Amino acid sequence: MDYQQLGNSDLRVSAVSFGCMSLGTDDAANAQLLHRALDRGINLFDTADLYQHGENERTVGKAFRGMRDRVVIATKVGNEWRTDGSGWDWNPTKAYILRAVEDSLRRLQTDYIDLYQLHGGTIDDPIEETIEAFELLKQQGKIRHYGISSIRPNVIREYVRRSNIVSVMMQYSLLDRRPEESCLALLKQHQKGVLVRGALAKGLLVDKPARPYLNHEAEVVATAAAQVQALSGTTRSAAQAAVQWVMRHPATTTAVVGMRTMAQLDDALGAMHAPPITEAEAQRLDAVVPAHVYEKHR
Q1: Are 49 and 21 in contact (CB under 8 A)?
Q2: pLDDT in tens, the chain (298 residues)
Q3: N-term to C-term CA, the chain
Q4: Considering the domain boundaries, does residue 295 fall inside one?
Q5: Nearest CA-CA partner of 150 in 294, 52, 14
């Protein structure tokens, strides 16, 4: 497994990381899968307090009890569940973040979080207040570093300019090349890590029937999937080709892949061991999908 420094932090993370949102409700099965991933070289595990009303954090914490020093745990904050359970509301206030981190620490069974991420964000948020909360948590030793999870260029620019974030998690795939316009170059320039999610475009590049996706018609999606499939064979699967395509960008630090089965884990790990896609192959993929730009939140 290859490891890269996450931005300008002291964290070194695996090139493929584990997106825990896909985990089921069986703690024993989850632990077996998470331990297998750790044993095979994955060291970054990403969860959020939003997932399954906190149960996702709890099962991850239970699985890694007694081996905390071997894993890099990332979680997220900012979505507050309503008391009646009917949904959640966006709450990036300092008071809420300082309260929510205590619940995450308890569920994760740890004294500190390696990477605490704002789970969204708008330009109208009280950004300075949010930053104050993260900086205070760093001073208290409850988090080691912080970042944001966002696809909004205006929000990303503000946090790069005003805060000490070490990373941004963002959606990026052959079918969503919007980050290429400005975000990836900006983050690379300022030494901010990029955690890529959605490399498989909800499975549309691998095994799901073609349908419209973002601004792409179903025909474009089908053509993209066919080109990805054409790169698969005895030494590389379609999923591995899709992951390798996002990993090839110099701004990408790690590809966060959701996994629920051992087969999915083995496939994700294979992206590190299969022959990497060549520049010529990558250019062929680029040619079939136009690189759109963000229309909002610019």
Answers
A1: no
A2: 799 999 999 999 999 999 999 999 999 999 999 999 999 999 999 999 999 999 999 999 999 999 999 999 999 999 988 888 789 999 999 999 999 999 999 999 999 999 999 999 999 999 999 999 999 999 999 999 999 999 999 999 999 999 999 999 999 999 999 999 999 999 999 999 999 999 999 999 998 999 999 989 999 999 999 999 998 877 889 999 999 999 999 999 999 999 999 999 999 998 888 888 889 999 999 998 888 888 777 7
A3: 36
A4: no
A5: 294
Q: Residue 163 is encoded by which pair of tokens?
A: 């805060």
- Interior CA angle at 7 toward 103 and 93, to 5°? 35
Strands 88-90 and 79-81: antiparallel
From the list 112, 81, 74, 84, the residue with the least C-alpha distance to 96 is 81
- Which residue numbers are catalytic? 51
- Please indicate, yes or no, if residue 291 is contained in any of the structural domains: no
Q: Are the C-beta atoms of residues 27 and 265 closer than 8 Å to each other?
A: no
CATH number at residue 168: 3.20.20.100
Q: Which domain holds residue 47?
A: 3-200+243-276
Supply the DSSP symbol for 276. P
Classify the phi-psi angles of 152: left when phi > 0, otherwise alpha if psi is within -120 to 50, otherwise beta.
beta
pTM of this structure = 0.94
Residues in the chain: 298
Measured between alpha carbons, how far is 43 from 34 in angstroms, rounded to an integer? 10
User: Which residues lie across from 40 on neighbouring strands?
Assistant: none
Count the domains in the chain: 1
Q: Is residue 210 part of a domain?
A: no
Task: In whole angstroms, give the CA distance from residue 103 to residue 260.
Answer: 25
Tokens of 249: 């960008």
Q: Are 151 and 120 in contact (CB under 8 A)?
A: no
Residue 259 covered by a domain: yes
Tokens at residue 27, please?
A: 């703690």
Q: Tokens 């490399």 appear where?
A: 199
